[in-house]
Amino acid sequence: MDQGSFKIGIDVGGTFTDIVVQDASGALAQGKVRPYLETSPKP
Predict the structure, then answer these.
(1) Are 21 and 12 in contact (CB under 8 A)?
(2) How many other C-beta atoms can be found within 10 angstroms of the C-beta atom of residue 23?
(3) What's the rounded mean pLDDT across residues 31-42?
(4) Full domain range(s) for residue 12
(5) Looking at the 3D structure of the chain, how many domains does it have?
(6) What is d(CA 20, CA 7) in angstroms, rounded to the nearest whole number?
(7) Which of 1, 15, 34, 40 has its CA 20 to 30 A from that of 9?
(8) Which of 2, 3, 4, 36 is nearest to 17 (CA)?
(9) What is the rounded distance in angstroms from the CA atom of residue 16 to the CA atom of residue 43?
């Protein structure tokens, strides 16, 4: 992705947080983030 304008979409809920980023050329990048909980085992 080049530098410039970006569109960002975030879906928070369920087990993961989903993230999508689109740059000015239309290229997409996506990812998932699992939340850290105090009761979760430490990595």
Answers:
(1) no
(2) 15
(3) 74
(4) 1-34
(5) 1
(6) 8
(7) 40
(8) 36
(9) 17
**Is 41 among the domain residues?**
no
- The token pair at 30 is 């996506």
What letter represents residue 8's amino acid? I
Q: Which two tokens stand for residue 24?
A: 């000015």
Give the confidence band of 3 by pLDDT, cuts at 50, 70, 90. low
Is 40 a member of any domain? no
The tokens describing 32, both together, are 């998932």
pLDDT at residue number 16: 87
- For the chain, the average pLDDT equals 83
Is 43 part of a structural domain of the chain?
no
